[in-house]
Design a protein that fits this description.
Blueprint: E1 2-4, E2 7-9, E3 13-15, H1 24-32, E4 37-43, E5 56-58, E6 63-65, H2 74-88, E7 95-99, H3 104-115, E8 121-125, H4 143-154, E9 161-165, H5 172-181, E10 186-189, E11 193-196, E12 199-200, E13 205-206, E14 213-216, H6 221-234, E15 239-242, H7 248-257, E16 261-264, H8 267-271, H9 274-290, H10 295-298
Parallel strand pairs: 3-4, 3-16, 4-7, 7-8, 8-9, 9-10, 10-15, 15-16
Antiparallel strand pairs: 1-2, 5-6, 6-14, 11-14, 12-13
Helix pairs in contact: 1-2, 2-3, 3-4, 4-5, 5-6, 6-7, 7-9
Bound molecules: flavin mononucleotide.
C-alpha cells in the first residue's frame, strides 16, 4: 500500500488529470483496469467550452494538446464526481478532484462546490494563465502567486491538498517550497511542457487550432524526472511524479527521484486503461529482477 497525503493507494500508479477523466464511467473503468487512484479532468467555477478541434495530436514523441480546459463547471462536476466516487469506493480506488481558476477567488469558490462531492483528495491545477498577474502568467511560474492560491484554498478546505506545478518554472524548487509553506499536503509534478508547436508542412500552418499546446508523453520524461528530483531535494512532502511515464522503468525513475506515487496520462491515449496493468506488471518484474525489496527501499535513492 502507498500513503499519498494520508490516503491509501493499493499501488503507486495514478491516472493524471485530463485523460479519461471527464466522466464517471471512464474514471470507474480506469479504476477497474488497475489504477491506484484516479484524477478527474480539471474544472473551473463556470463551464468552459475549450478550444475548437483539433485539440490533441500524437506527433510521434508524445502528445501536444490545447484542449482549453473544457469542463462543465464546478456544480455539474460535483455531480459527476459523486457518481464516480460511488463506483470507485467499492473498488478501494481513491478519487482526486482537480480544480483551476484564473483568480484566487475562482479557485476558492470552485473548491467549495467540489468539496460537496467528498473527493479523497483535491489537486489544484495552478498551471493555467492567471489574470491576477501581468500578461496572464500561470500561478505556477511564480512562488508568491502559487503560495497565494494555496493559502486561499487552505482557508476553506482542510483535507488532503495536492498542488500541481509546471515544468516551465525557472526554479521549481522555490515554487515547491512556497506552496509547502502555504499548506499543501503534497505536490503533483508536473503539468505539460512548453508550449510547443507542430506544423503541417502541406497545409503550411500549425496543426492545433490554438496553434500552440502543451507537450506530454515520452518526450518530456527526463524533464519531469528532473523536476521531481529538484522538488524532493527541496521539500519534505509526498510527490505525485507525472510526465512521460509509459513503462515500469519510467515509473521506477520517478520513485528513485523521490516520488511517492506516479501519474500516468498520455500513455492511455494509444493503449487505453490497459496501460495500468502493463506498467504495474513491468514495475513489479523490474523490482524483482533487480532484487529491490520494496518501493520504500528505493524511493529517493538517486539522491545518493
Ligand atoms: C489531452 C490532455 C489534457 C490534459 N488536461 C489536463 C487538465 O485538465 N488538468 C491538468 O492538471 N492537467 C492536464 N493535462 C496534463 C496531464 O495531467 C499531465 O500532467 C501531463 O500530460 C504529463 O503527463 P503524461 O506525459 O503522462 O501525459 C492534460 C494532458 C493532456 C495530454
Amino acid at each position: 500500500m502507498i500513503d499519498l497525503c494520508g490516503v491509501r493507494l493499493r499501488n503507486p500508479l495514478v491516472l493524471a488529470s485530463g485523460i479519461w477523466g471527464s466522466c464517471a464511467g471512464t474514471l470507474v473503468r480506469v479504476g477497474r483496469a488497475g489504477a491506484g487512484a484516479v484524477t478527474a479532468k480539471s474544472c473551473s467555477l463556470e463551464p468552459r467550452s475549450g478550444h475548437p478541434n483539433p485539440t490533441v495530436l500524437d506527433w510521434g514523441g508524445g502528445l501536444i494538446n490545447a484542449v482549453g480546459l473544457a469542463n462543465p463547471g464546478a456544480d455539474a462536476q460535483a455531480e459527476m464526481l459523486r457518481t464516480a466516487r460511488a463506483g470507485l469506493a467499492p473498488q478501494g480506488v481513491p478519487l482526486i478532484a482537480s480544480v483551476f481558476g484564473h483568480t484566487r477567488h475562482e479557485f476558492v469558490e470552485a473548491v467549495r462546490r467540489i468539496v460537496s462531492a467528498d473527493p479523497d483528495l483535491i489537486e489544484l491545477n495552478i498551471s493555467c494563465p492567471n489574470v491576477e498577474a501581468e500578461f496572464g502568467r500561470p500561478f505556477a511560474l511564480d512562488a508568491m502567486a502559487a503560495a497565494g492560491v494555496t493559502e486561499a484554498v487552505r482557508a476553506v478546505y482542510a483535507g488532503p491538498l495536492l498542488v500541481k506545478l509546471s515544468p516551465n518554472a525557472p526554479d521549481i524548487a522555490s515554487v515547491a517550497r512556497a506552496v509547502a509553506a502555504a499548506g499543501a499536503s503534497g505536490i503533483t509534478a508536473v503539468n505539460t511542457l512548453g508550449p510547443g508547436m507542430v506544423i503541417d508542412v502541406r497545409a503550411r500552418r500549425p496543426i492545433l487550432s490554438n496553434r500552440v499546446g502543451g507537450i506530454s508523453g515520452p518526450a518530456m520524461l527526463p524533464v519531469a524526472v528532473r523536476c521531481v528530483y529538484d522538488i524532493a531535494a527541496a521539500v519534505d512532502l509526498p510527490i505525485l511524479g507525472t510526465g512521460g511515464v509509459t513503462t515500469g522503468e519510467d515509473a521506477l525513475q520517478m520513485i528513485m527521484a523521490g516520488a511517492t506515487a506516479v501519474g500516468i496520462g498520455s500513455a492511455l491515449y494509444r493503449e487505453g486503461p490497459a496501460a495500468f496493468g502493463r506498467i504495474l506488471h513491468e514495475l513489479e518484474t523490474l523490482m524483482q529482477g533487480e532484487g529491490y525489496a520494496s518501493l520504500d527501499a528505493v524511493r529517493g535513492c538517486a539522491h545518493g
